[in-house]
Design brief:
Layout (H helix, E strand, L loop, with lengths): L11 H10 L3 H11 L12 H14 L3 H16 L4 H15 L3 H14 L4 H13 L3 H14 L4 H13 L3 H14 L4 H17 L2
């Protein structure tokens, strides 16, 4: 709402939740730190938007799932940086609250983030994820639509949309959502799997 490779013991539902939410800040930020240039931000360093565009171009070209996952981690790290120390801290607290199953507290924190920074797509995405986890698909879908209006390439939000549509029985629309995700992230194995399953299901229903 980690598009990438998951341990085999994870169920597909658990994998979809990870895909929707993206990695927690620790691993993504560690990777981002490792990928930072040795020089400080200057006229020689790319602006955040340009850097994100470059990463998406790399992601679209990459066909190796492992390499693509590393690129996607770097994208998540950029998405999670709101540019506001306050919003970033609230997001970290919300992640911790979710991990501790304190969903009400997490929701309060995420509500504050989207009010504080309504153009911060990841705030809406994290709230969409939490609504999804709490079983409120209507609110989750509303937040997903907001995410995609701010960042149409948000593969986590596209995965969440596809999962909700499929659960609602809208297989054709779910298929289209997975297709949109693969247009951005072709090497994602979960999206490839779901696309194949839904295509087979829809083909069988027409026989």
């Amino acid at each position: 709402m980690r598009l990438f490779s998951f341990p085999k013991l994870l169920s597909l539902t658990a994998a979809l939740l990870l895909l929707l939410a993206g990695p927690l800040s620790t691993s993504a930020r560690a990777q981002a730190e490792a990928d930072k240039p040795a020089f400080p931000q200057s006229e020689f360093a790319p602006e955040p938007a340009a850097a994100l565009d470059r990463l998406f171009a790399e992601l679209k070209r990459e066909r190796d799932a492992g390499q693509a996952e590393r690129i996607s981690d770097r994208i998540w790290a950029q998405w999670r940086d709101s540019g506001s120390a306050t919003a970033n801290l609230l997001l970290q607290w919300a992640d911790k609250a979710i991990a501790e199953k304190k969903n009400g507290f997490a929701l309060d924190l995420l509500d504050q983030i989207v009010v504080l920074m309504p153009d911060f797509a990841e705030g809406w995405n994290r709230r969409a994820t939490l609504h999804f986890m709490m079983g409120d698909q209507s609110k989750s879908m509303a937040d997903i639509n907001r995410v995609l209006s701010l960042e149409p390439r948000h593969f986590g939000a596209l995965a969440g949309m596809a999962a909700i549509l499929e659960e609602a029985g809208n297989d054709a629309l779910a298929l289209r959502a997975w297709e949109q995700l693969l247009a951005v992230y072709p090497a994602n194995p979960q999206a490839q799997q779901k696309l194949g399953e839904l295509a087979d299901k829809l083909a069988g229903s027409r026989i």
